[in-house]
Design brief:
- The chain has 115 residues and is an all-beta fold.
- Helices cover 0% and strands 50% of the residues.
- The strands form two sheets. Strands 2, 4, 5, 6, 9, 10 and 11 form a seven-stranded mixed beta sheet that branches. Strands 1-3-8-7 form a four-stranded antiparallel beta sheet, with no helix packed on it.
- Strand 9 and strand 10 form a beta hairpin.
- The chain starts with a strand and ends with a strand.
Length: 115
C-alpha cells in the first residue's frame, strides 16, 4: 500500500526556517519525481517544488514564489524527500502536501508563519 506521510510543520516567526519531510512507504521513491504542493485558506492548491527521480540527472523545480528560499532534496536510504524552507514569510502559511505519480498524496502538514 502506497503511503506518503509529511511531518515537520509548525508555527514560526517571519524569517524563520522549517524542514518538512515526506516519508514514503509501499514503494521506492528514488525512481519517481516527487512534488511539494501547498494550499492556503481560500486558495487553490499550488505546486511549489519538484525533484526528479534518480534514474536520470537529478533536476529540481521551484515556483517563483519560493525560489532562492526553499530547497528540495531526497535521502534514498531513508525513502524520504525533504523541503528546507528558509526566510519564511506570512504568505507561506498553508498546508503543505507531498505528491507522487499515480495521484498519491500525503495528509498534509500545517505551516504557520506569524509574528
Amino acid at each position: 500500500q502506497v503511503q506518503l506521510v509529511e511531518s515537520g510543520g509548525g508555527s514560526v516567526q517571519p524569517g524563520g526556517s522549517l524542514r518538512l519531510s515526506c516519508a514514503a512507504s509501499g514503494f521506492t521513491l528514488d525512481s519517481y519525481a516527487i512534488g511539494w504542493f501547498r494550499q492556503a485558506p481560500g486558495k487553490a492548491r499550488e505546486g511549489i517544488s519538484c525533484i526528479s527521480g534518480s534514474d536520470s540527472d537529478v533536476t529540481t523545480y521551484y515556483a517563483h514564489s519560493v525560489e532562492d528560499r526553499f530547497t528540495i532534496s531526497r535521502n534514498n536510504a531513508k525513502n524520504t524527500v525533504y523541503l528546507q524552507m528558509n526566510s519564511l514569510k506570512p504568505e507561506d502559511t498553508a498546508v503543505y502536501y507531498c505528491w507522487a505519480p499515480g495521484g498519491f498524496w500525503g495528509q498534509g502538514t500545517q505551516v504557520t508563519v506569524s509574528s
